[in-house]
Design brief:
mainly alpha
Length: 210
């Protein structure tokens, strides 16, 4: 009986997350009420408060469910010495783009974050966590670019901070625009040559330290 209750609770939580993602995408986060999510999930409003204290916590859980698996791999890769740091950067970025291209829930989550979300005071805790995660990610990518300088894959004068900012902007731009019009091209098939373009330019003409 206890096991069934636990399974029921997990099923309800999953239904709420699915309903929240769909409703956020249709109405936008700011215009979505918890009662809208409850109705879509077929549960009472009280069921939401059993699992989430407010909309910010619900939104954070939706984002966490769609987190790209490459984040943990990136953290590990940046902590260890890589024989081919640029290849590591490329493979992790490639995984991220293919994950986006191949999973509808990931596409929906990025669509919400990019186009359907106003980061108001209500979502301040989510913004703070996203900022911390972004900072950690950029630090990890920069560590790999520094390894690339150390092994001679990038010139010694490379400004790894600017190289990291450029890589981040390139990835976000690709994701942002593709999610707007996913039928415009096959992201999974084109991801590798797109990444090769940025990395080839970085090797030939990297941003330089002053």
């Amino acid at each position: 009986m206890v096991k069934k209750t636990r399974e029921d609770a997990l099923a309800t939580r999953d239904a709420l997350l699915t309903a929240a993602l769909q409703t956020f995408r249709e109405r936008g986060v700011a215009h979505t009420r918890l009662s809208d999510v409850a109705a879509r999930a077929g549960v009472t409003r009280g069921a939401i408060y059993w699992h989430f204290k407010d909309k910010a916590e619900l939104f954070a859980a939706v984002c966490e469910r769609g987190t790209l698996p490459v984040e943990a791999l990136l953290a590990e890769a940046s902590r260890t010495v890589q024989r081919d740091p640029l290849a590591t950067v490329k493979q992790l970025a490639l995984m991220a783009l293919k994950q986006l291209a191949g999973h509808a829930d990931t596409q929906a989550m990025f669509d919400v974050i990019f186009h359907k979300c106003e980061f108001t005071d209500e979502l301040a805790p989510v913004v703070a966590k996203n900022d911390a995660d972004r900072s950690a990610c950029l630090t990890q990518v920069q560590a790999l670019f520094e390894q690339a300088v150390a092994v001679g894959q990038l010139p010694a004068h490379t400004d790894t901070f600017l190289a990291t900012q450029g890589m981040h902007a390139y990835m976000v731009g690709l994701m942002h625009e593709w999610v707007l019009t996913p039928g415009s091209y096959d992201l999974a098939a084109c991801a590798e040559p797109l990444l090769d373009t940025y990395l080839a330019g970085l090797m030939q003409r990297p941003p330089r330290c002053p």
